[in-house]
Amino acid sequence: MTSAPLTVHQDESGRDWRLWFGIAITLVWLGLGFVYIDLSVGWRQFHAQSLGDMGQFIDGAFAPLAFLWLVLGLSLQQSELSANNRAIQRQYELMQKTAEHAEVQTQAIAANELHARQDTFIELAKLVGQQLEVISGLLYLSSQGPAGDGVISDQELDALWARMSSGESSIFSRRLISLRFRSADGAEARQFFWGTPIRARHSENFIFSFERLLRAAADCDPDGMIVDALVGNAQGRVYDIMRNLRGTPSGAPHP
Question: By CB neighbour count within 10 A (0-12 exposed, 13-18 middle, 19+ buried), where does 18 fall?
Fold first, then answer.
């Protein structure tokens, strides 16, 4: 929105033409008055008049000038008001643009802050994911290693740990999921996670750490995409299995 251009012409000194017009008319009127007194009345006779007559003459002579300057003053005042209104309008438009710019800056700062928090969370999630996978490995070792059922030898376990260290971040979690779905019922599956005090402690630590990770994700994830990704990955499925089996009594079937 742009303001209307000025319609009052002004000279370089900033005075508008109406002021010069008023001064010119005043000088011409005064000049005509002097000529009238000089030719028609005479200065000596003019000075000889009484104060009352002289006052009436002056009132009559200056009344048109007073009316002229009254009209010019009102016109000049209206122009000043219009100029002030235009200045206020321009200032209002500038304030609006400043407010819009500030809002854009605020949104940009908020977006940058959110991105920074998300970047920080991603780094944190990597560390917590490694911790969770170690817990999964300890659970798998407790149930399938030599200390448990002896299904997996030490050499095979060493190979699994080496694969996890080389970048397979969910190798133990996937194996725990496979154990759950290969088990005949919920009671058998529960033994993998809650069958001994050591396994129960590992499962509790896994649930505690994963839930803290979910809370941290929710704080920097307004759309819920990061939370959904965490719940849907291998460690999130292990978390869900642990929670479901935690409340299942030993020996009771579980769907």
Answer: middle
161 near 136, Cβ under 8 Å?
no
Q: For residue 129, what are the contacts with CB-CB under 8 A and spacing of at least 6?
A: 169, 235
Report which residue type is found at 185: D
CA 51: distance to chain centroid? 79
Q: What does the block give as tokens for 169?
A: 């971040």
- What are the tens digits of pLDDT across the range 101-145? 888 888 888 778 888 888 888 899 999 999 999 999 999 998 888
- Identify whether the C-beta of residue 169 lies closer than 8 Å to the C-beta of residue 130: yes
CA separation (Å) from 76 to 9, 10, 72, 118, 182? 12, 12, 6, 62, 96
The sign of the torsion formed by the CA atoms of 181, 186, 188, 193 equals positive
Integer Cα distance of 111 and 119 in angstroms: 12
9-18, 216-225, 230-239, 240-249: least confidently modelled range: 9-18
Q: Could you tell me which of 133, 135, 157, 136 has the C-alpha nearest to residue 146? A: 157
- Where do we find the tokens 């060493």? 158
Burial class (CB in 10 A: 0-12, 13-18, 19+), 169: middle
